[in-house]
Amino acid sequence: MGYRAALLIVDVQNDFCPGGRLEVPDGDRVIDPINRAVDYFVKAGLPVLASRDWHPPFTSHFRDFGGVWPVHCVQGTDGAAFHPALRLPEGTTLLSKGMNLSENGYSAFEGVAADGRMLADLLRDLGVQKLYISGLATDYCVLYTTIEALRNGFDVTVLTDAVAALDIVAGELPSAVEEMENAGAQLATVEELH
Prior knowledge:
6 strands; alpha/beta; Rossmann fold
């Protein structure tokens, strides 16, 4: 029996939340809506997947080694752990990304599950056609994941109350949302799932 919809939680990790090394302003405000979305998907018997940045200590992604970002979400550190208030249900499929020394790993579609499968293959194996996307950050990993999901032929809804942006350059958030919409993504709130 296949599933038609799935919830994808993008990078709700300590380093992206307040006090983290690459803090999304008020990033932890996404946790309550995500937990409510998780409850909805679990009750409906639908799959929940979660991606995480899982960087090696030395990678060209980091400013210290030629990249643009401060060191964050290094494999096995507290910063790379999911935020403790995030309630991932039993059976959540975990995808790790950004593990290569020279890749950014912005899109969850670059993520690899424990069994070696990539996200697109996992979703197809589950019979998923519609993906609901939540997490951090709207203007980077959520944006790249959404665009890649659409390129892979999935229907995509971004849960607007369950995402938050870095917004390093003023105006990046509105342009990211516009780019996702122009590419074919729908927008909804968690309440609209019910």
